[in-house]
Write a structure and sequence with these properties.
Largest sheet: 8 strands, mixed
CATH superfamily of the largest domain: Glycogen Phosphorylase B
Distance between the termini: 15 Å
Low-confidence stretches: none
Number of strands: 14
Helix content: 40-55%
CATH class of the largest domain: Alpha Beta
Structural class: alpha/beta
Length: 413
C-alpha cells in the first residue's frame, strides 16, 4: 500500500503523538509498504524547535525507509488558547502545498491524526478527489478538551465548532481512536458504527521490560538504597493537572523514604518547579534519551499518573503503556467509572486510583504503596502481563494493517 501520514507531530519527538506516529511509519515501511509523512519540525513537548531543524523552511528527509516532508510552522513559547490555534493553523496552511504535491504519487490511504483537526478538511478533500481512502485517527478530542479545560471559551463558539466537527468526521471513510470511551464519543458525534475502529496505543514490550537490578538513575540522582521513588515522566502540559504533584510532595516532605522525581518538559513545567521550590524530596529532570528509556521507567517504584477530572475520557494518557510494560505499580487520579480508572483498577489491575484534584488522597495512597513492597510487586506484575497480552506493538499494528488493507481492497473487489 501507499500510505500518506499527515500530522503535526512525528519522530524524533519522544512523547505523545509524535512517538506513536513515528513508530507506526517505521513499522509499515519495514513491512513492505510505501510510506510518506507530512509533518513539522520537532518541537513537542518543550515548545521549542529541536536542534538541527527550522521552523521557517521546508525540508525533505528519509528516515527508516520513510519519506518525510517537514513544513514551516509557528511555535509559541507559552501556548495559550489563541496562540495554540494560530500555531495549528500555521501548520495546516504551510502543509497544504505539500499535500497537493502528493497528487502524482496517488496514495491508497490518507491517514490524518487529531490533533490537529485543522488538517482534516484538506486531507479528506484530497483523498476524495484523488480516489484514495481517508482515515481520521483521534488521539485527543482536542476541541472538547480545549473548551472543557477553559483554553477556549464561548457557548456559541462551542456549538458552532461541535457542528463543524460532526460534519467533518462523517466525511471520513474510517474514524479510529485509542479507547473504548473515545470510540463511544465518536459514535455520539454521528459517525456510523461500521466506520469506527478501536486503534489503541501500543508499547514495545521487548524494548521496555522489568529491570532485574536497580536502575542506574538511582546512583545518578544520589538516592539511598531503600528510597521509594514516585516517578512522573512525560509531557508537562495543561491537561495533566500537574499542580497536584506539588501538593503531594509538600504533604510527604516529612517522610524521607519517599522521593518524587519529575521528568519531562512542557508549558506547565515552570509553574510546577515554582510550586516545588525548597522541597527536599523533589527532583526535576528533562525528558531522557530513548536509549535509556527502559532504565528510566524502571527507576519508578510507583508511576504517578495525574489527570484533571474535566479531561476524563476526552484523552487517554499515552504514557500509561510504558508504565505497564515496565512492571511497576501505578497511582492515578481518575474517577473509577472513567476508562483510565477502569484500566488501572480492573482491566490491568496495576495500581490504585484516587479522586482527581485530591492531593491528600493521593499522598495517603502513595504512603500505603511505599510501605507495602509486596503489593507494589504484585500490581507491577499484573500491569506487565496486561501489556504483553493487550498492548504489543506488533499485534496492534498487524491488526491495523489488516483494517487498512480491507478498506483499500474493498473498492477493488
Amino acid at each position: 500500500m501507499k500510505i500518506l501520514l499527515y500530522g503535526i507531530n512525528f519522530s524524533p519527538e519522544l512523547t505523545g503523538i509524535g512517538k506513536y506516529t513515528g513508530e507506526m511509519a517505521a513499522w509499515f515501511a519495514a513491512n513492505g509498504h510505501d510510506v510518506r509523512v507530512i509533518t513539522a519540525a520537532p518541537y513537542y513537548p518543550a515548545w521549542k524547535v529541536g536542534a538541527g531543524y527550522s521552523a521557517s523552511q521546508y525540508r525533505t528527509e528519509t528516515w527508516n525507509g520513510v519519506r518525510v516532508y517537514r513544513t514551516p510552522l509557528w511555535v509559541p513559547h507559552q501556548p495559550g488558547g489563541l496562540k495554540r490555534l494560530i500555531h495549528l493553523a500555521s501548520f495546516a496552511a504551510s502543509s497544504l502545498p505539500v499535500l497537493l504535491a502528493q497528487w502524482r504519487w496517488k496514495p491508497d490511504v490518507v491517514w490524518v491524526v487529531e490533533p490537529p483537526l485543522m488538517c482534516a478538511p484538506a486531507a479528506v478533500a484530497f483523498a476524495s478527489l484523488r480516489g484514495a481512502k481517508s482515515w481520521l485517527h483521534i488521539q485527543d478530542y482536542e476541541m472538547d478538551a480545549a473548551f472543557d479545560l477553559g483554553l477556549i471559551k464561548g457557548a456559541t463558539l462551542r456549538c458552532w465548532v461541535a457542528g463543524a466537527e460532526r460534519w467533518l468526521m462523517r466525511r471520513f471513510d474510517r474514524v479510529s481512536t485509542i479507547s473504548s470511551r473515545m470510540v463511544d464519543q465518536a459514535l455520539s458525534k454521528g459517525v456510523s458504527a461500521e466506520r469506527v475502529v478501536h486503534f489503541p496505543n501500543w508499547v514495545d514490550i521487548s524494548g521496555i521490560t522489568p529491570l532485574a537490578a536497580p536502575s542506574a538513575y538511582r546512583a545518578d540522582l544520589g538516592l539511598v538504597a531503600d528510597a521509594v521513588v514516585a516517578l512522573y515522566s512525560g509531557n508537562m502540559g495543561n491537561k495533566q493537572g500537574l499542580e497536584i504533584l506539588a501538593d503531594v510532595a509538600r504533604l510527604l516532605q516529612g517522610d524521607p523514604r519517599i522521593q518524587l522525581v519529575f521528568g519531562g518538559n512542557g508549558s506547565g513545567r515552570a509553574d510546577l518547579q515554582t510550586r516545588c521550590a525548597g522541597l527536599p524530596n523533589v527532583r526535576f529532570l528533562d525528558l531522557q534519551p530513548l536509549e535509556r528509556l527502559n532504565d528510566w521507567l524502571g527507576l519508578a517504584d510507583v508511576h504517578l499518573l495525574p489527570q484533571r477530572a474535566d479531561a476524563a475520557d476526552l484523552v487517554m494518557p499515552s504514557k500509561l503503556t510504558g508504565m505497564l510494560a515496565s512492571g511497576r505499580a501505578v497511582l492515578a487520579t481518575a474517577n473509577p467509572e472513567t476508562e483510565l480508572g477502569r484500566v488501572v483498577m480492573q482491566d490491568a489491575a496495576c495500581g490504585l486510583v484516587v479522586p482527581p484534584e485530591n492531593p491528600a488522597a493521593m499522598a495517603e495512597a502513595l504512603r500505603a504503596l511505599a510501605a507495602d513492597p509486596a503489593r507494589r510487586a504484585e500490581l507491577g506484575a499484573n500491569g506487565r502481563r496486561y501489556a504483553e497480552r493487550e498492548l504489543s506493538q506488533d499485534v496492534i499494528l498487524r491488526r491495523f494493517e489488516a483494517e487498512l488493507m480491507a478498506l483499500v481492497q474493498g473498492d477493488a473487489a
